[in-house]
Amino acid sequence: MLLTLSTTHSPATDLGYLLHKSPHKPQSFDVSFGLAHVFYPEATEQRCTAALLLEVDPVALVRDRQKSSGEGRSLEQYVNDRPYVASSFLSVALSRVFGAALSGRSRERPELAARPLPLTARLSVLPCRGGEVFLRRLFEPLGYTVTATRHALDATVPEWGDSRYFTVTLDATLPLGELLSHLYVLVPVLDDDKHYWVMEDEIDKLLRHGEGWLASHPEREVITRRYLRHQRSLAREAMARLSEGDEAPEPEDAPSAPDDGEVMLERKVSLDEQRREAVLSALVEHGATSVVDVGCGEGKLLRTLLQERRFTRITGMDVSVRALEIASERLKLERLPDLQRQRIQLLHGSLLYRDARLTGYDAATVVEVVEHLDPPRLAAFERVLFEWARPGVVVLTTPNAEYNVRFEGLASGGFRHKDHRFEWTRAQFESWARGRAERFGYGVRFVPVGAVDAEVGSPTQMAVFSR
């Protein structure tokens, strides 16, 4: 199995510093399935190519498997495509041989490791279960120009048709670590197989190497399922950790949390965690012991509240049944001790309709929800929350539209999430909040969440209503 990585960055031989492998000498490394060889077919100032050649020992693999499992021998174990095609063996080799580059590190050229470079990756034989169309659906959304040449099953017997094997060239301008991460995840996905048993730690590997791109990838569900060898429980857990709001609610209902696009925009400032900490601080300050999280989504805030013993009654309500199922799994409700389980409950319901189950709480939290409502429906939400539920304290957060200019990749005038119906400036939010406070008999104060920019304020704005 052969992978080559090329660049025309000047000087191109800097590729050796990024890969931590000298262009001037070939090197070999022991891996669990055989040997990995690194050498440079070309190394000039204008163009440099590094080659990773895997020498897989299928006989040793079968023997090791038999020793550990007691399985009998079969011809298929010895006669297969594993020594010749790109597979999960390549991912293991990338981690073993190019570990620093895969992590985006370079001791000699740290600034170059983070810089987009003109790169070409060529996989000599890549199995594509799903064909060229699926191959392109995986790589083209990541910015690659894909060139694929399909191999015949047997060139001497053309009537047999084409095989599922391709020679694939990927061209893009991006940091080397990103390219290696894409290969690490997507090559086993295309092969739709792994040479080792998949356990829970594979979820961490997937999310670590998929950070920054997998959450927003249009094929993320297929990628997750295939990477985890179609193990449903693992795939569900991975999607729960990866996604925000898997199901789109009905138009009159509000989703409860930002989805991938918004999460990706806000990742650099860790707003998700900062919001939860700000909300928790406000609840503690007002002495609340019972809290209803309206639009609880997949339960991130609920998990934070459950860790605080002061909260003796915790309720999460959401319009999405799927979100509540994920919240239940994340909170491990079925495995909680009885005393813990008695503190928390999940409710299916809409924040646009009067609901007696929302009454009697010290506090209500509404985190990144109102911006998903159509403006004409805000009045119904306001009455449900402030007039009928009427908790002592309401903690509400929403994006600050003025801060959007600080997010790279967000179009001018665009919203952070495709389902947002509006995003308020600081003046608009304060005007709305003061109006609701006056109408329903609350006081209100405003708290910035996240780093405050001198010109545009904080990325998230929070209002704390109290009676």
UniProtKB/TrEMBL annotation:
<keyword id="KW-0808">Transferase</keyword>
<feature type="domain" description="Hen1 N-terminal">
    <location>
        <begin position="1"/>
        <end position="242"/>
    </location>
</feature>
<feature type="compositionally biased region" description="Acidic residues">
    <location>
        <begin position="245"/>
        <end position="262"/>
    </location>
</feature>
<dbReference type="GO" id="GO:0003723">
    <property type="term" value="F:RNA binding"/>
</dbReference>
<feature type="region of interest" description="Disordered">
    <location>
        <begin position="240"/>
        <end position="262"/>
    </location>
</feature>
<dbReference type="InterPro" id="IPR029063">
    <property type="entry name" value="SAM-dependent_MTases_sf"/>
</dbReference>
<dbReference type="InterPro" id="IPR024740">
    <property type="entry name" value="Hen1_N"/>
</dbReference>
<dbReference type="GO" id="GO:0046872">
    <property type="term" value="F:metal ion binding"/>
</dbReference>
<dbReference type="InterPro" id="IPR013217">
    <property type="entry name" value="Methyltransf_12"/>
</dbReference>
<feature type="domain" description="Methyltransferase type 12">
    <location>
        <begin position="292"/>
        <end position="392"/>
    </location>
</feature>
<dbReference type="GO" id="GO:0001510">
    <property type="term" value="P:RNA methylation"/>
</dbReference>
<keyword id="KW-0479">Metal-binding</keyword>
<dbReference type="InterPro" id="IPR024026">
    <property type="entry name" value="3'-RNA_MeTfrase_Hen1_bac"/>
</dbReference>
<dbReference type="Pfam" id="PF08242">
    <property type="entry name" value="Methyltransf_12"/>
</dbReference>
<dbReference type="Pfam" id="PF12623">
    <property type="entry name" value="Hen1_L"/>
</dbReference>
<dbReference type="InterPro" id="IPR026610">
    <property type="entry name" value="Hen1"/>
</dbReference>
<comment type="similarity">
    <text>Belongs to the methyltransferase superfamily. HEN1 family.</text>
</comment>
<keyword id="KW-0489">Methyltransferase</keyword>
<dbReference type="InterPro" id="IPR038546">
    <property type="entry name" value="Hen1_N_sf"/>
</dbReference>
<protein>
    <recommendedName>
        <fullName>Small RNA 2'-O-methyltransferase</fullName>
        <ecNumber>2.1.1.386</ecNumber>
    </recommendedName>
</protein>
<keyword id="KW-0949">S-adenosyl-L-methionine</keyword>
<keyword id="KW-0943">RNA-mediated gene silencing</keyword>
<dbReference type="GO" id="GO:0090486">
    <property type="term" value="F:small RNA 2'-O-methyltransferase activity"/>
</dbReference>
<dbReference type="GO" id="GO:0031047">
    <property type="term" value="P:regulatory ncRNA-mediated gene silencing"/>
</dbReference>
<keyword id="KW-0460">Magnesium</keyword>
<keyword id="KW-0694">RNA-binding</keyword>
